């Protein structure tokens, strides 16, 4: 379970925002009287969303806040003519892209920039904590950042991908994309994403979910996984994009 609080010595607007989010998302509000660590221990919380100048997630393992991070670098590389491993797998004439696993938002942001102003990016995030951090992070950065048009095209929804896919019409989205949390994290991530990983969703792909994604996708389904993942041997992929020395691979199913 998560809760929400404010920074120490909060402004009235910080308190108002925290209470508003607590009511909107049905999570408990805790007046800031002690450290986040003590509040989490006493109330058996997995994490606390903290309201200040920006929202961030606090867990016993660290902090996580929404930022453009690697997405900004990838967009810059695309602008300079470099090839992005995900974007190169997106076929021509794609307008709708469903990112079933928003997470930190990097892929949604990059694809929005790659596809341009006529695109529609639908992003799903099951974790309530990561959804709130992402939703308010996008809103804040969109107010001032040069990437505001790219961010405003992202429709972020607090929903799990299986529920969403079951409701979607057949062949209603050009590309369906999955980047589920790895059971074995990349080594470089272990010490930098623990707060994020603590509140992330670990739902795995099943045949039923893949069948639904194939039904919904008009052009293709793309799945990002570790190269040694059993999913690449278990299901019938059109092809698998691997690169020597890279810790991830992309499986493509043509629909």
Automatic annotation (TrEMBL):
Example of a GO MF term: rRNA (guanine-N2-)-methyltransferase activity
Protein name: SAM-dependent methyltransferase
